[in-house]
Design goal:
Layout lengths: L1 H25 L3 H15 L8 E6 L3 H11 L9 H20 L4 E10 L5 E9 L7 H6 L5 E2 L12 E5 L3 H14 L3 H18 L3 H6 L1 E21 L2 E16 L3 H12 L4 E6 L2 E6 L12 E5 L2 E5 L2 H13 L7 H6 L6 E2 L1 E5 L1 H22 L3 H11 L8 E8 L2 E8 L3 H20 L4 H20 L25
Antiparallel strand pairs: 1-2, 2-3, 3-15, 4-12, 5-6, 5-13, 6-7, 7-11, 8-9, 9-10, 10-11, 13-14, 14-15
């Protein structure tokens, strides 16, 4: 009986919050409703209709609302309580920082999933964003700018099972991070960051900012799995056996500063390196494997304005040969089929093969056992969670391109997950939340979450929607080939 009452009390704040938000949306001014309809139509026009799932979310001013809700969740008077005053001032500075760096440019997010004849699903994700703000550090740092052919893709070995490439401007990302510390963090945090910064510069032997500025806006990460060797992956349920992975990182570089830093670190730790000729490139690698959870014998090389570092000499050598002979993953039928119809003039790709997708699914299944063990105290909840989280199987394979458009960011491609799978996992989220709230080991987290929900309900019941002003400066040139909003 106590458990039943406890469950009811746990859900009350969530239900109150949802009811208040629903009532508020019905009472919105006519111009706000009209703006919402326009944004829906703008986002929906970029998606595919007639499938299993069409989701459009209006996120205008959502950051401002969440920060205001966090302020409202504080119980003390900020005027009389110095601690509360400091919290409110920090949140206020944080809100201004987010707006100045481009976070407030987000208007909405859309998702569509349409079944295909081959059993996969055509997927599109569109992130609607102010064009002017696309030039701010956040968007330049995460997405990049002009879509183009990514030369780093030619380094992917033919047997790679996962690849993620992109055009992030790392110097812009560093600017966002350092600005956050300078503008938002309290003095003690600023002092700790300054100490870490100084220590990092001493360890690298160069200024961190200089090293970041020496890098170009192209990064690639690739993974392949051994056909013979095994390794173990830590999960919340223990160690899970997986095929031994090998890793490759490729970074665009304007000079040899990054390579010099890597070589200096090996020398500093007295790790002997050997040289191997791969085509017309000199590859350096350690003479023996290093202690690690996965097989690790680092190797690195430079080629065509890129710095390559991998977890084994074979991985780097195969990458160099794939680039030289243009016979890597891009030439394989499975890759060509996965990206058929997608533009290779883009700002990045995501590729997960069915084999890698199964490994990821096995790891997720092991983590699911941990979640179900918590829910085991409530058998009905555990059965529902298992049915929802295992809907559609464990295949995580996908192939996507990422493009920076004039009005937002478009992610499109194919996925093994369909609309029903996505809805099932979305439906599992509140059940997982309630399970965590009911678990005695999560009492402190429950109190924090309930307090936030209470503050959100309180704030949304009393305040009107407002559009935050975004601070922008200077003029912005359009991304290449985006006159019609598409590359």
């Amino acid at each position: 009986m106590k458990q039943r009452y406890r469950s009811m009390l746990t859900c009350i704040p969530v239900l109150v919050c949802l009811l208040v938000l629903s009532a508020r949306s019905m009472g919105q001014p006519a111009e706000t409703r009209a703006l919402s309809r326009r944004q829906f139509q703008e986002i929906a026009s970029k998606l595919d209709l007639g499938g299993d799932l069409l989701l459009v979310a209006n996120t205008d001013a959502i950051i401002d609302q969440f920060i205001e809700a966090a302020m409202a969740s504080e119980t003390s008077d900020p005027v009389s309580d110095p601690h509360e005053k400091e919290v409110h001032e920090t949140l206020d500075r944080f809100q201004g920082f987010l707006n100045r760096n481009g976070f407030a440019a987000l208007h909405g997010i859309g998702l569509s999933l349409v079944p295909r004849e081959d059993g996969l699903n055509a997927a599109k994700i569109f992130i609607s964003r102010d064009f002017v703000d696309s030039n701010l550090p956040l968007w330049r740092g995460v997405v990049g700018w002009h879509p183009r052919h990514l030369l780093s893709l030619d380094f992917i070995p033919g047997d790679a099972v996962m690849a993620r490439a992109g055009t992030p401007e790392l110097a812009s990302l560093w600017k966002v991070l350092s600005s956050a510390v300078d503008e938002v963090a309290p003095p003690p945090s600023q002092e700790r960051f300054a100490a870490w910064h100084k220590k990092t510069n001493e360890m690298l032997g160069v200024e961190l900012e200089a090293m970041i500025k020496s890098l170009r806006d192209e990064v690639l990460v690739a993974v392949r799995l051994s056909e013979t060797e095994q390794a173990v992956m830590p999960t919340r349920s223990g160690l899970v056996p997986i095929p031994a992975p090998s890793f490759l990182i490729v970074v665009g570089a304007n000079d040899d500063m990054l390579r010099g830093v890597v070589e200096a670190q090996f020398a500093k730790h007295r790790i002997t390196l050997t040289e191997t000729q791969v085509g017309d490139v000199i590859m350096r690698s350690t003479t023996h494997k290093l202690p690690s959870l996965f097989p690790l014998q680092p190797a690195f090389a430079s080629q065509a304005g890129f710095f390559l570092i991998g977890s084994s000499p074979d991985m780097v050598a195969d990458a160099l040969l794939a680039y030289r002979h243009k016979n890597g993953l891009l030439a394989r039928p499975e890759f060509r089929n996965a990206f058929q119809g997608l533009s290779m003039v883009n700002n990045g790709i995501v590729y997960v093969s069915p084999r890698m997708g199964k490994v990821v699914g096995d790891v997720n299944e092991a983590n699911l056992k941990s979640t179900l063990s918590v829910a085991g105290k409530h058998p009905a909840t555990a059965r529902m969670l298992k049915q929802l989280l295992t809907h559609g199987g464990q295949d995580q394979s996908c192939a996507f391109t990422i493009q920076n458009w004039k009005s937002g960011v478009m992610v499109m491609g194919s996925s093994a997950w369909g609309g029903k799978d996505m809805i099932a996992r979305m439906a599992a989220t509140p059940i997982q939340l309630v399970t965590a709230l009911l678990d005695g080991s999560h009492k402190s987290s429950s109190n924090c979450l309930l307090s936030l929900l209470h503050g959100l309900a309180k704030k949304t019941a009393t305040d009107d929607d407002t559009l935050s002003e975004t601070a922008t400066g200077g003029s912005v040139t359009e991304p290449e080939n985006s006159a019609d909003d598409q590359p």
